[in-house]
Amino acid sequence: MSLQSVREFFAARQLDIAIIELETSTATVALAAEAHGVEPGRIAKTLAFRLGDGRVVLLVARGDARIDNRKFKEAFGKGRMLPSAEVEALTGHPVGGVCPFGLATDLPVYLDSSLQAFDEVLPAAGDVHTAVRISLAQLVAVVDGHWVDVCQQQETVAA
């Protein structure tokens, strides 16, 4: 019912955002990038962390980004990624389909500045076969997101 919660989230806000449903799995960044024909960075992965003070936060970052532990600690203090069962219980979405929409629990959403390399990104939509194409501006507005810089700098590769 996770996909349904995303549909209801969009409908409640009168958002005209098409949910892309595929036959193939998009449960990993690599699978999602291949299925959508985009570079892995354009896949917006949603990660869940429990902070040292007990709060849980979601972080949306570009698909090929890695957490920079020093930056993370500066922004949030200590934190650890949640195990999959806890992620699903708190978000209502299965791992591989976790997104910042239609959450089972009201959680603060942070967007890593690594996403700013793109005008449009593809986060999951509550299922391991779904995604949405959304502009950064709309993503920030829809999830009431806050920008942070907690990922390692992406290296540019000459073509």
What does this structure look like?
By secondary structure, the protein is of the alpha/beta class. It has helices at 2-12, 29-36, 69-76, 84-91, 136-143; strands at residues 19-21, 43-51, 56-62, 79-81, 109-112, 120-123, 130-132, 134-135, 146-148. The strands form two sheets. Strands 2, 3, 4, 5, 6, 8 and 9 form a seven-stranded mixed β-sheet that branches. The protein has a two-stranded antiparallel ribbon with strand order 1-7. Strand 2 (43-51) and strand 3 form a beta hairpin. The radius of gyration is 15 Å and the shape is globular.
Layout of secondary structure:
Elements: H1 2-12, E1 19-21, H2 29-36, E2 43-51, E3 56-62, H3 69-76, E4 79-81, H4 84-91, E5 109-112, E6 120-123, E7 130-132, E8 134-135, H5 136-143, E9 146-148
Parallel strand pairs: 2-6, 3-5, 5-9
Antiparallel strand pairs: 1-7, 2-3, 2-4, 6-8
Mean pLDDT: 94
| Largest β sheet strand count, sense and barrel closure | 7 strands, mixed
Count of β-strands: 9
Low-confidence blocks of residues: none
N-to-C SSE string, H for helix and E for strand = HEHEEHEHEEEEHE
Distance between the termini: 43 Å
As an assembly, this protein is: single chain
Overall spatial form: globular
Helix content: 25-40%
Strand content: 15-25%
The Rg value, from CA coordinates, equals 15 Å
How would you describe this structure in keywords?
globular; 7-stranded mixed sheet; 5 helices; 159 residues; alpha/beta
In brief:
The protein has five helices and nine strands. The chain has 159 residues and is of the alpha/beta class.
